[in-house]
Design a protein that fits this description.
The chain is 38% helix and 22% strand. With 418 residues, it is of the alpha+beta class. The protein has 2 domains: 6-87; 98-412, Major capsid protein gp5 (Major capsid protein gp5 fold, 2-Layer Sandwich). It contains 12 helices and 14 strands. α1 runs antiparallel to α3, α2 (29-43) runs antiparallel to α3 and α4 (98-108) crosses α8. The protein is elongated, with a radius of gyration of 37 Å. Residues 148-410 form the Phage capsid-like C-terminal domain. InterPro entries: Phage_capsid (IPR024455), Phage_capsid-like_C (IPR054612). Pfam families: Phage_capsid (PF05065). It is found in: Virion.
Length: 418
């Protein structure tokens, strides 16, 4: 017998309560006793008073016992159902990783994949949800590939933060998005004490910008017999295609596109560092807490800095000039759980930026909008079939919106030679 759901148990419990009340209202124990006495009198032509009293007493006693047994049975059934209902815990919504959704999708389509033949229509393996695509969530047990030189410094390519993980996101069903671009302004709110003059006027220069969705795609061709090993297929697609997709996504966010409807990337939109500091740490901090705050009239506050992995390691392995000992600037550069932080700004590493440069920004000045979540499809054409191979393709569509260029500052880590 299938187990009842919580709603079914509650419904059954309510029906039992109504049934008991209805039965009690329709026929009480006294009524049943009266019926029993009347039946006894009809069976006998003559009956004494003592016999009548005894018959009535027995009928009432039996009716009460029957009613009690019936009520006890119903009460036990009701108690068991209520107890079961109280033990049903609401299903907790757990956010799954991209890998978990991908593994489920492949497993659900296992028979279709293994039975894929030449001439078949294309097989689409659609994910039920996007899931958390961060590498930290998809590869929690990944091990470092680079030796740890300083305590707390672990450069792990499978456990990192990607730009799309930290930039606020959204979704759209169009082929492009329109968003307001901030281009400075005039005036500011101020103190008004002279009633003979107008109050301070503020003008914001806003323009409408369009950002078209771009494809991020790639494919892999594998041997047909490898489809027989679904476990191998899962691990391969999860490890290789996901890393490759996220790397391409990083490059798109940094560099944008240069096609007919270009999307401006972070590096092209960022303003140049204009401070006077020469030390790399000082320049990164001044770009965020000095230049961004000043140029945006304190509207934006820096949150992150992008560095090349080599540059991040170089800053983390800072040495004193005299003793040669590792000497991080106290309170300025620190590691927490293997993450580099400079002046309170979280560092995101990527090979998409030069080892000599940095990019400091406020994540709230950007939005990464998705049109099509990463989708995996399987194909087999005539050329592939001749060599007993099949193709898997991963692709998605997204675009980037940058609301204020002054909220992004880039420049060389070292001051240029005079």
């Amino acid at each position: 017998m299938a187990e009842l759901t919580e709603e079914e148990v509650k419904k059954a419990a309510q029906e039992n309560i109504e049934k008991i009340a209805k039965t009690a209202a329709e026929k009480t124990a006294e009524e049943k006793a009266a019926e029993a006495v009347e039946k006894t009198l009809k069976e006998k032509a003559f009956i004494t008073r003592d016999e009548a009293d005894k018959a009535a007493e027995e009928a009432v006693k039996k009716a009460l016992e029957d009613k009690k047994a019936e009520d006890d049975k119903r009460f036990d059934t009701l108690s068991a159902q209520i107890k079961k209902a109280s033990q049903i815990e609401p299903e907790e919504k757990v956010e799954k990783s991209f890998n978990e959704y991908l593994a489920e999708a492949i497993e659900e389509n296992k028979e279709a994949i293994q039975g894929f033949k030449k001439g078949s229509t294309e097989l689409t393996i659609a994910l039920k949800a996007v899931g958390d695509m961060s590498i930290a969530n998809n590869f929690p047990g990944a091990t470092p590939w680079i030796q740890d030189v300083r305590t707390g410094l672990i450069v792990n390519p499978y456990n990192r933060v990607w730009l799309s993980d930290i930039i606020p996101g959204g979704t759209s069903s169009g082929n492009s998005i329109l968003y307001p671009k901030e281009n400075g302004g005039e005036g500011a709110v101020g103190l008004w004490t002279d009633k003979t003059v107008d109050k301070p006027q503020v003008d914001y220069d806003l323009t409408s910008q369009a950002a078209f969705f771009k494809w991020i795609a790639g494919y892999v061709i594998i041997e047909r017999e490898m489809l027989d090993d679904i476990a191998w297929l899962q691990s391969y697609l999860q490890a290789k295609l996901l890393i490759s997709y996220k790397t391409a996504e990083n490059n798109f966010i940094l560099n944008g596109s240069t096609d007919a409807n270009p999307v401006t990337g972070m590096l092209a939109a960022a303003t140049a560092y204009n401070g006077i500091f020469e030390n790399p740490v000082d320049r990164v901090i001044d770009a965020g807490w000095g230049q961004i705050v000043e140029d945006t009239q304190e509207f934006y506050q820096p949150t992150h800095t992008i560095l090349n992995p080599r540059a991040a390691v170089s800053l983390g392995l800072n040495k004193a000039d005299g003793s040669g000992e590792y000497d991080l600037p106290n309170g300025s550069v620190a590691f927490s759980n293997g993450r580099l932080s400079i002046g309170g700004l979280d560092v995101v590493t990527t090979t998409g930026i030069a080892a000599t440069d940095f990019l400091t920004f406020d994540r709230n000045a950007l939005s990464y909008v998705t049109r099509l979540a990463p989708e995996l499809r399987m194909f087999e054409d005539a050329a592939l079939a001749k060599r007993n191979k099949v193709m898997f393709r991963i692709e998605g569509r997204a675009t980037l919106a940058i609301f204020n260029d002054n909220a992004l500052v880039t420049g060389p880590l070292a001051a240029p030679a005079p």
